[in-house]
Structure formats: C-alpha cells, structure tokens
Amino acid sequence: MAPHNVVRVKSGIPGLDDLIQGGFPQGTTVLVTGPTGTGKTTFGAQFVYKGAELYNEPGVIVTLEERVSDLRKEMRSFGWDFQKYEDEGKIALIDGVSSVAGLPSEERFVLEEGLNVEGFLRYIYRVIKAINVKRVLIDSVPSIAIRLREEKNIRELLLRLNTILLEMGVTTILTTEAEDPKRDKLSRYGVEEFIARGVILLDLVEKDIELKRYILIRKMRETKHPMKKYPFEITEEGIVVYPSGEIY
C-alpha cells in the first residue's frame, strides 16, 4: 500500500488522478514517454496550465522543440490562454528554440545560444525561484541533449537537473521519445526512466481497424496504481483519460 500522508498534486487531466490515488506525489519527477504524435507536449502543457487555472500553482514550461509563440497558438485550440497567466506572473514560458535557430525572440525568458550545462541549469533555477513555481514541464529530453551538444553526458545532466528539481520541491514532467515501447525501449537514451520517480507511456494500439490512444502508468513511487492500458482522447478541451474503459 502507498503511504497515506503523501501530498498529491492534481494532474489537471480528467480521469488520470483516479488511477494514481488522487494525483502525482508532490515533488516527483514524472517521465512522459511515447512515439511521436501521441500527445506528450499537450499532456505536459495541460498539467502546467490547469495548475495555474484551477489550483493557483505557478508553472514553468521549457520548450525546446517549438517556439513559444507556436506553443501558445497551438494550445489556444484547447481554449487555454497562456498569455493571461503569463501576464499575471503565474506561468513562465522559456524559449529554448529561437536562439538555436538563429531567430530573434521577443519573449521574456530566452535560453541563449551556446549555453553549457551549468548555464542551462542555472537559468532554469532562476526562473523557478522568480515566480515561486510549483509545476514544471521540460519538453523534451532529446532536445536538451541536442541543444547543449552534450549528448554523451546526458546521464549526468539528467541526474543534476533532477536533483535541483527535487531540492526545490517542484513537481516536474519531462517528455522523451520512446523508440519502441512494444519492446520496452521506453526512452531515447535508456536512462530517463531510471532518474524519474514516475513513468507514463502514451501510445497507440490498433483496435477495430483504427488506431486508438492509450495510457499506461509504468511506475509511480509512493502510489498504488494499475498496470493496465486505458484509453484516452485528445479532445477540444485537452486530454481526457477513461479509467473505466480498460483496453486489456
């Protein structure tokens, strides 16, 4: 049984908390993995946005795969007005793309070109402290390695990043690519799932001649959870998990 005194952080994703005893353990780093196009960025963005909207918990998104302006536009399709909470100081979006692409950025928070591991960690630490952040999304782990040109040292980087996040007491979602989840290859580098205290897989399964999305909680420390695949959908209002709709 999981401890009863664990403080839970609501995911903001309908149906998910029913599977993890009410939410993520506070201060946990959760790895959200899966093939391209399974909804990992939306999952993490929803966690941060709903934290600000529903629970008054400030959040940070470090976007390393798309420009902040594109992320805002994409998330607006779910009715999520990130700019509103940015203006209120409840959400900070860190642009980790523009400088690498050689593009100018008008964002308040921008990761500069040529940042090393130390600079990257220090910048994130500063932003988290600045708005008293409770929730963090880093999208994605492979893009950190590429951006910092430190792919060979990804294990050390992730360990240090995770240590900083744990010490600050924030609840974090890291996204990564699963090369072949069917064969238990849950992450690009094979180390991400070991530094995370939780691992959630988003994937697709063929059912009745069409592809269906499913979620599987592979690991969640301090939490009693099922090891089954459950359907989820990306609706007009974001991700919804169906705990009663077990696939198998």
Q: What percent of the residues sit in helical stretches (DSSP H or I)?
A: 25-40%
Shape, principal axes of CA atoms: globular
- The CATH class is identified as Alpha Beta
Spell the H/E element sequence: EEEHEHHEEHEHHEHEEEE
| Poorly predicted runs of 5 or more residues | none
Pfam families: ATPase
Domain KaiC: 7-248
Keywords: ATP-binding, Nucleotide-binding
InterPro entries: KaiC-like_dom, KaiC_dom, P-loop_NTPase
Task: Walk me through what this model shows.
This protein has 248 residues and is an alpha/beta fold. It has one domain: P-loop containing nucleotide triphosphate hydrolases (Rossmann fold, 3-Layer(aba) Sandwich), CATH 3.40.50.300. The chain has helices at residues 40-55, 68-76, 82-87, 117-130, 141-148, 154-168, 192-195, and strands spanning 8-9, 24-25, 29-34, 59-63, 91-95, 109-110, 135-139, 171-177, 198-207, 210-220, 229-235, 238-241. The strands form 2 sheets. It has a 10-stranded mixed beta sheet with strand order 6-5-4-7-8-3-9-10-11-12, sandwiched between helices. Strands 1-2 form a two-stranded antiparallel ribbon. It starts with 7 loop residues before the first strand and ends in a 7-residue tail after the last strand. It comes from Thermococcus waiotapuensis.
